[in-house]
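Lab channel / #folding
Pinned by the channel admin:
"Please post every new chain as: sequence first, then the structure tokens as a reply. Keep commentary short and put observations after the output so the thread stays searchable."

First post following the new format, from NK:
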Amino acid sequence: MTLPKSLTKIIVYFSLLLILSIFTANMVIFILAVLTFLLLGAAFIFPVPKEIKIWRSLSSNKLQVGDVLLVTVNIEVSGGLGIVAFEDVVPPYFELVEGSNCMTCWKEVRDQSFSFQYKFKCLVSGNHEFNILKWELRHFLYEYAKSGEMNEPSKVDVIPGMMDVKKIMNLKNKSPLPLPSGAQANIGLATLDLKDMRFYTPGDHFRNINWKATSRNIYKGIPWPVVNEYEKEGKKNIWIFIDRAPEMKMGSNVRNVMECAIEAANSLANYYLSMDCLVGFSTFNCLQTTVLPGEGRKQYHRIRKELVKLTFTREKRVEEFYEKCISLKEAVKTNTRYICGSRPLFIIITSFDRGMAGMISDGIQEMMKYAGNTERKPKIMVINIVGYGLISKGLEELTAQKLLYQLDRFDYAFLKKKCIWIDWEPASTSLAKVLLTQVRKL
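Reply from TO:
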């Protein structure tokens, strides 16, 4: 076994002092040699701590963005005497708010246990994992240490943020969010609510014939019966389309446009499902991810699971990214079999860029085929996330931000005539406040 350099130095110093004291017959040098010998004996009697056991516990395995996570670390050290140093390697996108994930303590001769806590704030949604625990055992006298690491996997699921829907769902106020009042399914029993009047087709029941309207048509020279069409019992349909274009990367790794889009989609899905609607979800400007329309809490968990998986598409070349992605219009067409037969409310969550105006316009035109435009309220809502404030610092950048925002407003002015257009600046206001103010003005 090779002795540490520091221990070898002690042995050399002891030998030199002992030889010097013998030749000089100096009692002081002899006492120093004895003290050095005692230190050398203590170094051999009390070695470095031998064994260490570490385990971690978390206050919760499921959190929401912005919640605080309490981490408790327990350490058991046996044998030896010395210094114990420890570090818990924290995954990215967590902010330390209290305590420290590093600790140094003194290990006595007896076996000892240590415990410490620290708190982190979850900043980004996703599946995160605490894994590596690093440790180091140092000798109390000479410069010698043993180090290593342990794998102690602890998974944390961070779900997207949620807007406060209590204000929106307050029964005293009229809901500011658009509801697809005519988006009823074509299955189920007919209700007494008149939906429309149309000409008779084979298979219609005779009791649904509107004789007064039919007689007026006959008087006008149109000898064809008119029937009343009633709303069917069924669920109202909502489709949420989220953009995953490279422009959604705007911002920092912690707070960016994509995280805001995930928060908006999660909040709107929860809101409309609580309003007893069928909610579907799809992505565009990427490899398409689709969740077919459903209802209840299970559907919310399906959508939330896919939202957590959404990450930036990192391709080697931009050309490869655009070869694999599909446009908004294509995303709507691929779900035609589930959209056709109802008049759903379409929600598009994007960050407008001048180059994508044509693509969004084509997608809205395709949606209007199924949403219909016979009612006063439009059935298409676009949430435009203005992300300039997430990267602006200083007066000059803030001025440039306002200028770019005004240019964008000029570019998408023609789109606002076809749909409900909502501008959300996450750097300065919350989504709930935007929905409570901008939609109510319409």
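NK: The CA atoms of residues 3 and 144 lie 10 Å apart.
TO: also worth noting, The first strand starts at residue 51 and ends at 58.
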